[in-house]
Amino acid sequence: MKRRNLLVGLGAGLVAGCSKVGQSEPMQTLFDWSERLHNGAHRALGRKALAREYAPEDISPFFRGNGTIEPDGGAYAAHAAAGFADWRLAVGGLVRRELALSLDQLMVLPQRTQITRHDCVEGWSAIGQWTGPQLSTVLQMADLQPEARYIVFRCADRLNGAEYYESIDLEDAFHPQTIIAHRLNGEPLPVRNGAPLRMRIERQLGYKHAKYLTGIEAVASLEGIGRGEGGYWEDRGYQWYAGI
Ligand SMILES: Nc1nc2c(c(=O)[nH]1)N[C@H]1C(S)=C(S)[C@@H](COP(=O)(O)O)O[C@H]1N2
Ligand SMILES: [Mo]
């Protein structure tokens, strides 16, 4: 409980600090902390930089959906009809504390709101405002084991018969703009954009931003997951590191 209060306190400080783009004390503290926790991981200084954030007037009038725009099957439709009241985000793998978080539980965590540009390799971009807790907050609640090197995202949809999934390293996982978004432009996520939860990983290309998020898994290796390349599109030839 003590530890949790500390985390929530840190997160609240971080959110407050974020209005002053990027160099606030709490943010530095969080980075120092995550570095001490995961000092085995590679981290280049440049990757800590924030992606550009935009002004409200820059927001695209329509944020298109791409890839899956509505997961097949009765289970998702039933969740949607119930307003996603029973949706759970499972957090597991190499953690000391497994979690199953409801949307309400995610919404009471400190929130970050950011207006960013999404770039899809298919040649389109859109600017949107995203809100949700930072992934780092949830990972700290779950308490990563030292062997954890990657975070894998599980999704409710399939593309061409295969499960959509993605993965990032701990550098991106603890980046302040990596959030579990539940709102787009101040409204609950539309189904086409990944309702009820989707990742925003702002230093990465569009296909890394897993939609219809059902699970977060800490792993030591990407072997044995999908075809082993770290994501649905990576398994089909795209780069695993899609940094922008
Ligand atoms: N679960 C899931 N996540 C996904 C996809 C998908 O098909 N399924 N498509 C990806 C691609 S290629 C892009 S560009 C973005 C599109 O996000 P949008 O639908 O909100 O525009 O989601 C990414 N995340
Ligand atoms: Mo994309």
Automatic annotation (TrEMBL):
Origin superkingdom: Bacteria
Alphabetical list of SUPFAM superfamilies matching this protein: Oxidoreductase molybdopterin-binding domain
Domain Oxidoreductase molybdopterin-binding: start-end pairs: 85-219
Pfam family, any one: Oxidored_molyb
Name of the protein in question: Molybdopterin-dependent oxidoreductase
Organism: Croceibacterium soli
